[in-house]
Amino acid sequence: MATAARRGPYFCGIDAAMDVVTGKWKSLILWELHHYGTRRFAELRRGLPGVSEKMLIQHLREMEEDGLVHREVYREVPPKVEYSLTEDGVSLNTALAPLGRWGTERIRRIGAEKVSVK
Amino acid sequence: MATAARRGPYFCGIDAAMDVVTGKWKSLILWELHHYGTRRFAELRRGLPGVSEKMLIQHLREMEEDGLVHREVYREVPPKVEYSLTEDGVSLNTALAPLGRWGTERIRRIGAEKVSVK
DNA sequence: TCGGGTACTAACCTTCTGGTAAGTATGGTT
DNA sequence: AACCATACTTACCAGAAGGTTAGTACCCGA
Q1: Which of residues 15-44 of A touch B (CB under 8 A)?
Q2: Which band of pLDDT confidence, cut at 50, 70 and 90, is reported for residue A106?
Q3: Which domain of life is it from (chains A, B) (predicted)?
């Protein structure tokens, strides 16, 4: 496995939560899936400018293992796979909301730019 | 610098918030300082079983740069330095609370152990 | 038949993160 | 004189994280 699942032992809840959110694109994937409900692999790739296919799959697989993401395969040609959030994924996203607000405030304060879709 | 300050550009608020919380001990430091109000270097070291002095200082310096932590030096011998949270640090900690609750729930669900003080 | 789109997998390589162990300056204690 | 504590700093190293490039199998439209 590229990233070993840790699954504890943990110091505290934040530690446990960070364990599943850490990864360059995970919070963005969470947000995309929450926003669109259901997304195909290529849609996610296009929605996250800069992800490599390798990282996208790796993160999706880990999030599936962690019970945050549901993966639905349609046995068709060309292949079709749909990703969506599980209940845990949705609640995690909800728990991340205040952090998102804090971050948005911070961006305003320090005057950082937001990334624009290249 | 060991860990370059990123300070954007960011995709979104969560991205910006994660940028300052990412680091093996940062959320724990935040929690310790929030809990005790003010802590000396050696107190923090003892409060976070397993941190190396190098990482502790590195994280504290980054958090100071990021405006989360205040560092008060007393010019005495032996040296005395007190760390505390800034307003931003306190509000970040508050924003992390729901995530902590989610993580605690998750620990219960998956039955992971909590780390015990070795 | 060539290129494009689907969803991946594999090999390789670089960068980043964190750990270990040692050293520094100062003074107090034994 | 040796040793402890304070708060660091420095050098070196291992492993994890992430990027790049290419390849797979299948079908469709030009």
Answers
A1: 15-22, 27-28, 31
A2: very high
A3: Bacteria
